Amino acid sequence: MRVLIIGGGIAGLTLAGLLQQRGFKPRVVERIPEYGKV
Question: Which of 6, 14, 28, 38 is the most exposed place for a label (fewest CB within 10 A)?
C-alpha cells in the first residue's frame, strides 16, 4: 500500500521509516527542496 506523508520534519521521516518497516511504501513530500536549510 502506498502512503503519502506531507512534511519532511522529524515526525514525517520517523513515520515513513516505521511504515516502510511494516511493508508500506511511503512517499514524503516537503515544500523545501533541501533538508537542513531554512
Answer: 38
33: which 3 cell numbers?
527542496
Q: Which residues contact 10 (CB under 8 A, 6 or more apart)?
A: none
pTM: 0.79
Q: What is the DSSP string of the chain?
A: -EEEEE--SHHHHHHHHHHHHTT-EEEEE-SSSSTT--
Domain boundaries, the chain: 1-38
Cell of 34: 533541501
Reported confidence tier of residue 33, pLDDT bands at 50, 70, 90 = confident
